[in-house]
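New to this. Please check this fold:
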Amino acid sequence: MCTTDADRSLIEPRIAELVAERAGVPDASGALGGPAIPSACRAMLDAVVAQGMTSSEGGKRLRALLALTAYDVFGGGPASRPAMVDMACAIEVFQTAALVHDDIIDDSDLRRGRPSAHRALETWSGAPAIGRGLGLMLGDLLATACVDIANSAAGGLAHSSALVSAFLTMQREVEIGQVLDLAVEQASLDYPQALVEASLGVFRWKTASYTTIAPLELALLAAGVDPDDARARALAVGEPLGLAFQLEDDLIDVVGSSRTSGKPVGGDIREGKRTVLLADALDMASRDEADELAAMFRAPARDEADVRRAIGLFSSTGAVAQSHDRIARLWRRTLDAIDGLGLDARPHERLVHACARFVPDVAER
């Protein structure tokens, strides 16, 4: 079994255990130190926790795998590795919390091929408003649980105080990023370059912060690297990689990929999302084409013909090629940053491989 497969076999069951422990509820006697749960309310609370378990299943676990690889690469000891596994799982539990909230904000019906958490809880409760409320609270429960997990794991690792601080910084940055993301959805389509700048800024706050920067920083700290140095190294490698990851994800929405596991093409267009691809197309299109695209994305909804037309314009204007170029430049920056870490050949190769999983379409060229 390769290291990645071995780590994934650790991560999956451990996430389930941790969610059950930290998002779970006391039994009827209040034996875990809290008041007893009223019997009339217990079924709903159990349903929310059960949904938390379901929502935590699946995913590529790229963040946790990057954290564990970086921990090994930078000399983390085997005795503390179980604590690092829990820290890596805490990142994944945080992602689940964020996705539960994202799906409510986006009014999404599905997540990972299943009903999104709030939709499942709507079905369970028979009341849309109750389901959305329960979804919000589930996201909060998981967000609290991930901090509890991280705090416990930090006690068994180097720089425990700095680890907790870094984890909380990650959460704060993502929360700010979500606010900025909503701001971009109301951004003007008349100034494409400003829209590109705003969208890339959101990628840094909302995506790179917890997808690539935090897994690296937490791993470096846990391996004993000085906190300032850990932050600098994590930013140098993780920031361009996180931006490239989100750009590739947006590109996959238009051109598809054999690695998307059935992700439907055109979802961002149907939702009317302001993306870098859209901004580039508006900037590079003729006046008539730009007016057509802007009108399409200002409309309350887009049909399948609109999706096909938008995809065609993204390609013909050169916006798709522009995204490929941006991703390639960011990946080159990531590789240069890894080269600057001074790693020996084998650790260098392992870290490059772990980072390449975030941008497989460009990394394999």
User: Anything to note?
Assistant: Strands lie at 110-111, 114-115. The chain has two domains: 1-157, 159-365. Residues 1-157 form a domain with the Farnesyl Diphosphate Synthase fold (CATH 1.10.600.10). The chain has a mean pLDDT of 93.
